[in-house]
Amino acid sequence: MRFSTVLLWVNVTIIGASPLYTRSSALGKSDIDEIEKQFPGIYWKLAVDTCTDDEFEILYKATEMSSRILEGAAPSAYDAGLASGVDNSMYNSAAWNRYFISPQNAMIADTTHSWSLNPEAYQTVLHNMMQAAFYPTQGGKKKNGDGTVQAKQAAYTCQRDFKGCAQEPTARGGWTGPSARTSQPDSALNTLVDGALIAFCPRYFQEAGQKHIEDYVNDLKKVKRKMSWHVLPSLRTFEHVILHEWMHVNLFGYGPKNIETQKNWPIIVDVSNSGLEGVPDEQVMYGDYYTYEFARKYHKNSKLGAVNLETALNADSYAMFYLYSYLSDEFDWDTDGSETLHKRDADTDPDDKGVTWTVDDDDDENVRSPSELNEFVMPTNCIFLGKNSTLDASCTFDADYADDDVANPDLDYQCDTTQTSSVPADIFGGMYDKFCDQVDEKSMLTWVVDNEGNEMFTLDKRTPPTKPSDYETVTGYLSFSTNSDNSTCSKSCSDAFDYLKACPCGTTGQGMYSMAQQGSVDVGCGVYTFNVNKA
Asked: Where does the signal peptide begin and end (predicted)?
């Protein structure tokens, strides 16, 4: 099942999927209204002003394709379950094995070299993949859905003189320096927008051999040839650069904690000082060769196999995972991802030698040593399925950490997740606003509502469904009961039901995006209860 354009919770097939896309001609500057609706997580106005028509079309086409690649490769909300026995196709995929090491190849019981024994690190990877997959198309919006907030968008610019950009080729025709640079909101270089800024340099558009990944795919399919994984080190695509830069954006990725300062690094970085034998300290882990070797930093010398958790910190480990997943699907590669390939120019002269998050005017602050980022913590918007078990956390997409933080594992919620209502969580999300408008936190209130939240007095008789179109009406029972101890309310009515929608009560059924039949949450001053059914 591919991503729905409506549902918040999704289930995605990773391996053996059908082609991800069919595409018409790319949109351009004259289509800006349509583009902004399609990608509200991206701020496009700077690109309209600073890019040529051709450059803008390349950016749009690469953004759309990158989004589709992510939709096919990112985990579903419940791929997170390590302890619950969930069939996790991503965790066992060739792409994961290549860039993160799959469990069947890493049976070591060493807490420093195991995903299952370090669930915070594993959840961080899954969370970052899911955020990047959703944010371009679902992020950037105001909490009420009416318009966007520029500070919560990633801006594009083609500004030619952006500091550090590769401006033109050398006399011999080669390029040095990055194709793109990402600056976070508080960077001294970012004076143009309130949110993160991705500057696409002249090299991105002009370097010989740079193509859209779909052009590689379609050209080979026209002549009925099959792309081999052997091309990975030399493959240069517009999408690789965008996927890499997206992982640096503070809204898309989530960094680990520095054990010395006890502060979270708010982004995914380019890892240097990798500790790989024979690799210079200044070499960032970029491209197929280095990301593959970095994943096996501890693996090769272990009899049982050991993962390198530091891959969770490295932007291009994610980008290469996405590209490999997509190409493996397109060409049905018969491999477990462990094949050894040689270095090529794409690895030794990477597009991105370091992005920019300026602290005290240090332009290379995003290039970090793993030793500086060495304590993983559970991402903010993860909910513990077992209340306190990080092995069974469920991490949701969150467009706005500050305003939409409904993931509070300390709230006392109750529901039977084995009893699904088959009512999607996003449908339930439209059923309680009118009820909440009438809630007095000192009084009890009970409503029976329809699927738009209108109060009903009676329920139609329910019969077994014969076809889905005959049973689109959803009814619900909503209730608020007060506690007798005059406690204060930790959440409002709408936030309480938002929480029930986001916690495991809202992730039941085969697709893991339906509400349980009934559930409740105690917010201190009282208890909010729901019961929903398809009528």
From this structure: 1-19
How many domains does one find in the chain? Answer: 2
Same domain, 348 and 428: no
Whether 524 is in a domain gets the answer: yes
3-state secondary structure of 448: strand
Q: Is 290 within 8 Å of 347 (Cβ atoms)?
A: yes
Angle at the Cα of 385 (from 380 to 390), degrees rounded to 5? 60
DSSP state of 154: E
Q: Using an 8 Å Cβ cutoff, are 259 and 375 in contact?
A: yes
Q: What stretches of 234-372 show up as alpha helix (H) in DSSP? A: 238-248, 287-295, 315-331, 345-348
Contact between 181 and 198 (Cβ < 8 Å): yes
Question: Which residue range is the domain that position 488 belongs to?
Answer: 411-534
Same-domain pairing of 354 and 441: no
Strands 154-157 and 42-43, how do they pair? Answer: parallel
Q: Give mean pLDDT, residues 196-223.
A: 90
Percentage of the chain beyond pLDDT 90 is: 23
pLDDT value for 392 = 56
Q: Domain check: are 174 and 34 in the same one?
A: yes
Task: Answer whether 205's CB lies under 8 Å from 58's CB.
Answer: yes
The bridge status of strand 154-157 relative to strand 180-183 is unpaired
Mean pLDDT of 110-133: 77
Query: What does the pLDDT read at residue 230?
Result: 79
CATH number where 166 lies: 3.40.390.10
Strands (E), 225-321: 257-258, 263-264, 270-271
Instruction: Check whether residue 431 and residue 343 sit in a common domain.
Output: no
CA distance linking residue 494 with residue 156, whole number of Å? 34
Alpha-carbon span 512 to 102, nearest angstrom: 23
Task: Clarify whether residues 312 and 206 are in a common domain.
Answer: yes
Give the residue from 165, 121, 74 showing the smallest Cα distance to 373: 121
- Distance from CA of residue 79 to its chain's centroid? 13
Domain contains 343 = yes
> In the numeric block, which tokens belong to residue 86?
């969930």
Is residue 32 within 8 Å of 111, Cβ to Cβ? Answer: no
pLDDT confidence of residue 45: 96
Predicted structure pTM score: 0.68
> What does the alpha-carbon distance between residue 149 and residue 170 come to, in Å, rounded to a whole number?
41
User: Position of tokens 């600073």?
Assistant: 50
Cα gap 110→95, rounded to integer Å? 23
Encode 122-147: b = buried (16+ Cβ within 10 Å), e = exposed: bbbbbbbbbbbbbbbbbbbbeeeeee
- Residue 394 — pLDDT band, cuts 50, 70, 90? low
- Give the phi and the psi of residue 43 in degrees, each rounded to 5: -95, 115
pLDDT tens per residue across span 413-424: 888 888 888 787
